[in-house]
Amino acid sequence: MSGSMLKKTIAQVLIPRPFDQPFSYIFEECPSIGDWVEVPFGNSAELGVVWSLEADVDISERRLKSITRRFPAKAMALEQVALVERIASDTMMTLGEALRLSMPPRNAINPKSTETRVFRSHAPPDQKYSKGQQRLLDVIGWSEWNKQKLLQEAEVSDAVLTGLVRKGAAVKQKVVPKLHPPAYSAAAYTLNKEQRNAALELRSAINKNIHSSFLLDGVTGSGKTHVYFDVIEAALGAGKQVLWLVPEIALTTQLRHRFAQHFGNEPLVWHSVAGSEAKSKAWRVAAGDWPCVILGARSALHANFTNLGLVIVDEEHEQALKQTDMGTYHARDMAEHRAQLSNAVFVMGSATPSLESELRARKGDVKRLCLHERHGGALLVETELVDLRKSQPARGKWLSDKVVESVQNTLDKGQQAMLFLNRRGYAPLSLCSSCGHRVECHQCRAWMVEHRFLGELQCHLCGTPAPKPEICPSCGESDSLVACGPGIERLMEEAVQTFAEARIGVFSSDTLRSAAETRAAFDAVADGTFNLLIGTQVLAKGLDFPDLTLVAVIDGDLGLSNEDLRAGERTFQLIHQVTGRAGRGQLAGRALIQTRSPESSLMQALKEHDRSGFFDLELERRKAFLMPPYARLATLLVADENPDRLKQVVHDLARLAPQAEGADLWGPVAARLPLVRGWHRQRFVLRVPQGKRPQSFLRAWLSGYKFPSKTRVTIDIDPLSFT
After folding, report:
1. I need a surface site. Which of 49, 403, 411, 708 has the fewest CB within 10 A?
2. CA pair distance 38, 16, nearest whole angstrom
């Protein structure tokens, strides 16, 4: 071989940037797929992952750079590599964008946090020590100690240790803290017959070490969490790792506490506000092949599991499981795929399954495990519909006489009541009483919501705050802006006036802004600090307050006020879930739903607990119109700050749309929110038959078109909303 012919190892490295292919780099030593490396890219250094290998390649004519460094951290699991590729394929993100979702905190790959370790050294035999130094040596023995624990155990100061080090009798060394396998010890717990049957089925599946999917379908209060605990115990006993996904961060607060009570130790936590140290620890433990439980929101899906045996998706129907920033994907669906890649058992649980999961269970694609009875002998909630056409509250009020009377009776008995309204702030609209002008966000044209607690108006789309105008921006009339409609702040104002002795707590994303605040608020409910709860959907799921016996839904029709395909399904799920918070202990529960359409099939189904009947009607309607789950949808949202350029782009796209058998393309039309944060928006909607992939149509359509650099394009496969 001539001197110009060089043979070195070349590998393809994927970096978390919007590129659809990895890049070639030279390695001095042969790497493995999944290795973490730092590579030069342009004028910067990028953290990347070895994606594929090019062994024995002639590089004499190739101008390639060498990697900067290779990290000793555990490689990305091959199952995680496959998940990244699946996310990219299904969502039409680039590979680099999909990788970005799975990037751990930097200190998980290259830990910088250190601790000082102390161990004994062989000092000269004639060395003399003070009493404190001798006591310190006796404690050290020939073991290795954490410095702070050592000083505490020996009851000496840091100066004593420094003296020992100077005499050569001890050595201090900064090291990366060692990780230890989490310790879990499950407490004994008695399951009822239905829970036991479900748990045995899931335990059997784990023991077979073969992937299988289940729907744990239990009424509210049936004890699904206890079934989860039982099967988690089985997975840990088999040396397996567990991923437990919940739709909202707030749910992790109470679950961590309940988990610790049952297993003697908290689960590892992974979500957007957990902090890099907590996520780094979870990532390193999972990568270390130790049996563990990681509890978290969507992003926990991307922990580096190396021995995954069980995946749980709680409240699988929740829209919050759909990722809408940094790419769009459904965490439930990707969690099931992650379970498939690891031959793990997949369990999704809900009292109100999504129609997609309901249809899969009816077809036998997933096995349904039913819990028909509330745990501990609790009865189902008695539900009553309050017809607002006949029981209209007084002008400026929002609570009917029936609700007021029922809440007062509940409080008089020493029990807790809840007023539920899924609307933050004081009022959703500020209207001029003189000219009818509605105060809008200048960036979104959405109504500005009054937040009286904060003393401002706020746009719930872009978060823009603004002071409430003293004069109408349209007609100039002073003191003419009036609050229209209720939010929970306005509801609290009425409750303070109506229930003078009530101890009121308000719960929403405006008041529960951190895990600590959430934990403190729910602890206050549990210990009786509050006896009247006023809240939004943060109170609708996963919470268990045994003294809560009455739930009053203030506006049962609120979720039906738009033309969303899933409006009925979501309204049923939300109200069913929130009314299910009542009567979960020994005391019977009641629910009141204020509505202007009590005769509707949805309201009657809620009243009679007829979930199957509602699903039958809803599935029949979807099938008649060939809508999900009997077809698949995809949306293409095109946005631009220049409305003329946007108009030209969507005109070009409409002209280039291919013809495909069975595929229907609608649009372009203005998005439901045509202006958001100063960006004008238009939308296309694609429908294909169930079993077909909308991605194929979209790739054929968009591959030959180059979008202007300032135009934004968002693709959403299987969208849940059309905002």
Report:
1. 708
2. 12
Residue 11 is given by DSSP the state E
Q: What is the DSSP letter of 161?
A: H
Strands 382-387 and 590-595, by their bridges, are: parallel
- Same domain, yes or no: 403 and 332: no
**Per DSSP, what are the bridge partners of residue 215?**
348, 368
Which string of b and e fits 403-442 if b means at least 16 CB within 10 Å?
bbebbeebbeeebbbbbbbbbbbbbbbbbbeeeebebbbe
The Cα–Cα gap between 585 and 583 comes to 6
The per-residue b/e assignment along 480-506, b for 16 or more CB within 10 angstroms, e otherwise, is: bbebebbbbbbbbebbeeebeebeebb
Give tens-digit pLDDT for 167-189: 888 888 877 777 788 999 999 88
Q: What is the dihedral of CA 294, 297, 302, 305, to 10 degrees?
A: 20
Distance separating alpha carbons of residues 545 and 521, to the nearest angstrom: 12
* Cα R_g (the chain), whole angstroms: 30
Give the tens place of pLDDT for each residue, 135-146.
898 888 888 888
Total of domains in the chain: 5
Structural domain containing residue 390: 378-423+486-621
DSSP labels, 294-325: EEESGGGGGS--SSEEEEEEETTT-GGGEE-S
- Residue where a domain stops, chosen among 147, 175, 203: 175
| Token pair listed for 273 | 């506000």
Do the domain assignments include residue 596? yes
146-155's contacts with Cβ under 8 Å and 24+ in sequence apart are 146/115, 146/116, 146/117, 146/118, 147/115, 147/116, 147/117, 147/118, 147/172, 148/116, 150/118
Q: What angle do CA 291, 295, 300 make, to 5 degrees?
A: 95
Could you read off the pLDDT of 540-592 as tens digits, one per residue? 876 778 899 999 999 999 888 666 889 999 999 999 999 999 988 888 999 99
In a domain, 592, yes or no: yes
Query: Is there a domain that residue 428 lies in?
Result: no
Token representation of residue 25: 């780099």
